[in-house]
Write a structure and sequence with these properties.
4 strands, 224 residues, 6% strand, binds zinc ion, 9 helices, mainly alpha, two-stranded antiparallel ribbon
């Protein structure tokens, strides 16, 4: 899953809106934290995936350290607690968003998400075998989360949130139907890590305070 992972992050940002909480870019990064780990560990040969030109384009063949249930719990606790030390009230939303990665991956992956400390047995509901449906689900998740988030933002941040949403839908469309599967794990990891950084930067841009110092992040919408 790609764009759909960001839906819990967008929704969580609304949940902390109006309070001091984690910035949107942190939540967007948290949504993909497990994949950042997977890409880095994959580059060192600790974890691995089988890539294919047709669906399923990616099957995790070694993902116990990042994509298993125990790893999900450990990463969620560790990153939630770490974020909580930096931003007040960030532990719970960041921990939950990190954990959401497993739930959203579960919908699309073929059974390759380990239940325990070995690669088998593994879970996955296999929507990736039906690319148009997987695409529709991911876009629907992002659209629903943006619709939920936008009323909690000031006008300019709301406009930018819609632009981020459009970028995520475009990204999903390109990766699902246009851009071929990268030929090697190295190329997959490089493009994925660049993408995660770009989306986090997009989140920073959406909620960037105005030059006047007025918050563009959480706060009542001025459009009503
Ligand atoms: Zn993943």
């Amino acid at each position: 899953m790609l764009a759909g992972h960001y839906a819990p992050a967008l929704a969580a940002y609304r949940a902390v809106a109006g309070r001091k909480g984690p910035p949107l870019w942190v939540l967007l990064l948290a949504a993909q934290a497990v994949d950042v780990g997977f890409m880095l560990l994959g580059l060192f040969g600790v974890e691995a995936a089988r890539l294919a030109p047709t669906a399923p384009k990616l099957v995790v063949t070694a993902g116990v350290w990042t994509h298993s249930l125990p790893a999900t719990v450990a990463w969620s606790l560790a990153l939630g607690l770490a974020a909580g030390r930096v931003w007040r009230g960030a532990a719970l939303p960041v921990g939950l968003v990190v954990a959401s990665h497993f739930g959203t991956d579960l919908l699309v992956h073929t059974p390759d998400l380990p239940v325990g400390f070995t690669q088998e047995p593994a879970l996955g509901l296999s929507l990736w075998l039906h690319p148009p449906w997987a695409w529709a689900l991911e876009c629907a998740l992002v659209l629903a989360a943006t619709l939920w988030l936008v009323p909690a933002l000031r006008a300019r941040a709301a406009r930018r949130a819609w632009l981020l949403c459009a970028a995520l839908v475009t990204l999903q469309t390109l990766s699902e139907f246009v851009i071929p599967t990268p030929p090697s794990f190295g190329e997959l990891a490089a493009s994925a890590l660049a993408l995660y950084a770009a989306v986090a930067a997009g989140g920073w841009w959406v909620t960037r305070p105005a030059a006047t110092g007025q918050s563009q992040g959480p706060g009542p919408s001025t459009r009503r």
